């Protein structure tokens, strides 16, 4: 399995399709932020039960467990560009129909749960296809920079711009954020459809190959790499904590802190601002300390931030903690994604990505339900403390992954090699 130098952050070229992929991803993130912020705010108008509100988030994660591995195998078989624009077009139609239902007064917790499940089911194919398509649009040694630009752009559009707009759109009508989200899906679909058809370097499938065997091959590839095994286990533990936090953050802000919708928007904006700072300086931190070491630092600092969120009853403390949490979250996400892309064979990237995502995300629905349960039983601040405990466990799981058992060797695509991951 080939890797490239951890500190190499060569910038990707905007031509050749990356610019359009970036534009589609950023636009979709803006729409996703409108929907993601509006859903819990709509949910709290339909029920005051934390467990039911958390169920909306939980059902948004479940499809990764049910369909995630299948989505990765399909992504390695099909034209990834075509799969992505078709999925976005279908998601746009679904959200548009939901907006009509909300406008007509037919919204219910059951309908919110159904929408969350359907959109994430489609996302299992879209995200795995996008992960596998990116290395075809940029050079392998520019993946770290490309991922940083993608995730930073998504944070700007999704949090800095999208989050604060939600209260204004909701003032115009409960259906408006969802209608806007539908439009962004459809425009993103058009941008992706315009991407140039990439030359496939996938090997022909052996005779008698089945989806089941191809999925198993992706799982074996992930299991053989000690660094990816450790990262996957750590991310799974983090996602249990994230599920608990995300599902109940609206309750923490509007209930425990009594900060209302404006406070919730401020909290999300703080998280986004921290993420942007992480995207701006994360590359320099990686160049100095290495990818694996920075992932370990990110998990440790996020644990401390969660402890502040759950123990200090003040909006200023929450905003500061979320900013730090977002900073280190960006460092975590960029480097774990880049490591996965660098350490996976091109023809298996969709399957390795789906195996990693499925195993990592599997804990999020459990975390969402646990968050709702502990909030009901012990108070609205306790999910943040529960999340801190799982993040602490994730740091422990990362320690064996600091020294990957796969040396740096010359990759098949001729990319420059270097020192490996520290």
UniProtKB/TrEMBL annotation:
Domain Major facilitator superfamily (MFS) profile positions: 227-422
Protein species of origin: Streptomyces lomondensis
Protein name: MFS transporter
Its membrane topology: Multi-pass membrane protein
CDD domains hit by this protein: MFS_MefA_like (cd06173)
Keyword Cell membrane in annotation: yes
Ranges in a coiled coil: none
Key words of the record: Cell membrane, Membrane, Transmembrane, Transmembrane helix, Transport
InterPro entries documented for this protein: MFS_dom (IPR020846), MFS_trans_sf (IPR036259), TM_effector (IPR010290)
Keyword flag Lipid biosynthesis: no
Chief place of localization: membrane
Annotated localization: Cell membrane
Record-annotated membrane-spanning stretches: 21-46, 52-74, 94-119, 168-195, 230-257, 263-287, 294-310, 316-334, 355-378, 384-401
